[in-house]
Amino acid sequence: MKEKRDKEKKLSWHEQVRQTVLEMDMPAYALMDVPRLEMTGNGQLLIERHHGVLEYSEECVRVAAHGMTLRVTGAGLQLQSMTQNEIAVTGLIFSIELQRQVG
User: Fold this and answer.
1) Does domain 33-103 have CATH number 3.30.365.10?
2) How is the chain split into domains, by residue range?
3) Which of 1, 31, 77, 96 has a CA between 20 and 30 Å from the CA of residue 54?
Protein backbone atom coordinates (compact mmCIF):
# COMPACT_ATOMS: atom_id res chain seq x y z
CA MET A 1 0.00 0.00 0.00
CA LYS A 2 2.82 2.41 0.91
CA GLU A 3 4.57 1.63 -2.39
CA LYS A 4 1.44 2.60 -4.32
CA ARG A 5 1.19 5.97 -2.49
CA ASP A 6 4.88 6.67 -3.06
CA LYS A 7 4.47 5.92 -6.76
CA GLU A 8 1.42 8.23 -7.01
CA LYS A 9 3.30 11.07 -5.31
CA LYS A 10 6.06 10.91 -7.91
CA LEU A 11 3.63 11.63 -10.75
CA SER A 12 3.17 15.23 -11.84
CA TRP A 13 -0.23 16.85 -11.44
CA HIS A 14 -0.68 16.75 -15.22
CA GLU A 15 0.08 13.03 -15.30
CA GLN A 16 -2.28 12.33 -12.37
CA VAL A 17 -5.10 14.14 -14.19
CA ARG A 18 -4.33 12.23 -17.38
CA GLN A 19 -4.47 8.90 -15.54
CA THR A 20 -7.71 9.84 -13.80
CA VAL A 21 -9.31 10.79 -17.11
CA LEU A 22 -8.22 7.47 -18.64
CA GLU A 23 -9.58 5.51 -15.67
CA MET A 24 -12.92 7.35 -15.90
CA ASP A 25 -13.05 6.65 -19.66
CA MET A 26 -13.64 10.34 -20.39
CA PRO A 27 -12.12 12.38 -23.21
CA ALA A 28 -9.15 14.50 -22.08
CA TYR A 29 -10.68 17.70 -23.40
CA ALA A 30 -13.56 17.32 -20.94
CA LEU A 31 -11.32 18.14 -17.97
CA MET A 32 -8.26 19.80 -19.45
CA ASP A 33 -7.67 22.89 -21.58
CA VAL A 34 -6.58 20.95 -24.66
CA PRO A 35 -7.83 21.51 -28.19
CA ARG A 36 -10.30 19.17 -29.82
CA LEU A 37 -10.15 18.80 -33.60
CA GLU A 38 -12.93 17.42 -35.77
CA MET A 39 -12.21 17.03 -39.46
CA THR A 40 -14.77 16.27 -42.14
CA GLY A 41 -13.03 14.95 -45.23
CA ASN A 42 -10.37 17.37 -46.39
CA GLY A 43 -12.73 20.33 -46.64
CA GLN A 44 -13.71 21.31 -43.11
CA LEU A 45 -11.95 21.48 -39.76
CA LEU A 46 -13.55 22.39 -36.44
CA ILE A 47 -11.14 23.48 -33.69
CA GLU A 48 -12.58 23.66 -30.18
CA ARG A 49 -10.85 25.20 -27.13
CA HIS A 50 -8.59 27.55 -29.07
CA HIS A 51 -6.76 30.63 -27.76
CA GLY A 52 -7.04 32.82 -30.86
CA VAL A 53 -5.96 33.13 -34.47
CA LEU A 54 -2.26 33.93 -34.98
CA GLU A 55 -2.15 33.97 -38.79
CA TYR A 56 -4.77 33.83 -41.50
CA SER A 57 -4.45 33.59 -45.28
CA GLU A 58 -5.94 31.46 -48.04
CA GLU A 59 -2.93 29.11 -47.73
CA CYS A 60 -2.29 28.99 -43.98
CA VAL A 61 -4.23 29.37 -40.74
CA ARG A 62 -2.32 29.26 -37.44
CA VAL A 63 -4.28 28.95 -34.20
CA ALA A 64 -3.02 29.18 -30.62
CA ALA A 65 -4.04 26.41 -28.26
CA HIS A 66 -2.93 25.35 -24.79
CA GLY A 67 0.82 24.71 -25.03
CA MET A 68 0.82 24.41 -28.82
CA THR A 69 0.13 26.05 -32.14
CA LEU A 70 -2.05 24.40 -34.77
CA ARG A 71 -0.98 25.11 -38.36
CA VAL A 72 -3.47 24.32 -41.12
CA THR A 73 -2.22 24.54 -44.72
CA GLY A 74 -4.25 24.29 -47.87
CA ALA A 75 -5.86 26.23 -50.69
CA GLY A 76 -8.79 28.61 -50.50
CA LEU A 77 -8.89 28.43 -46.70
CA GLN A 78 -11.57 30.51 -45.01
CA LEU A 79 -12.63 31.07 -41.42
CA GLN A 80 -16.23 29.94 -41.86
CA SER A 81 -17.11 30.83 -38.28
CA MET A 82 -15.33 31.81 -35.09
CA THR A 83 -16.55 32.05 -31.52
CA GLN A 84 -14.73 32.32 -28.23
CA ASN A 85 -14.60 28.50 -28.03
CA GLU A 86 -14.43 27.23 -31.60
CA ILE A 87 -13.21 27.98 -35.10
CA ALA A 88 -14.44 26.39 -38.33
CA VAL A 89 -11.94 26.37 -41.21
CA THR A 90 -13.11 25.43 -44.70
CA GLY A 91 -11.32 25.02 -48.02
CA LEU A 92 -9.03 22.37 -49.42
CA ILE A 93 -6.97 21.22 -46.40
CA PHE A 94 -3.57 19.70 -47.20
CA SER A 95 -2.12 19.29 -43.70
CA ILE A 96 -2.53 19.99 -40.00
CA GLU A 97 0.57 20.39 -37.84
CA LEU A 98 0.72 20.51 -34.06
CA GLN A 99 3.73 22.51 -32.89
CA ARG A 100 4.47 22.14 -29.18
CA GLN A 101 5.67 25.21 -27.32
CA VAL A 102 8.75 24.49 -25.20
CA GLY A 103 9.19 26.27 -21.92
Assistant:
1) no
2) 1-32, 33-103
3) 31
Whether pLDDT at 8 is above 60: no
DSSP per residue, 43-82? TEEEEES---EEEE-SSEEEEEETTEEEEEEEEEEEEEEE
Region 24-38 average pLDDT: 71
Residue 2 has pLDDT above 60, yes or no: no
Sign of the torsion formed by the C-alpha atoms of 27, 82, 57 and 68: negative
pLDDT given for residue 26 in this prediction: 62
End-to-end C-alpha distance for the chain, whole angstroms: 35
Instruction: Give this prediction's pTM.
Output: 0.70
Question: CB burial class (10 A; 0-12, 13-18, 19+) of residue 87?
Answer: buried
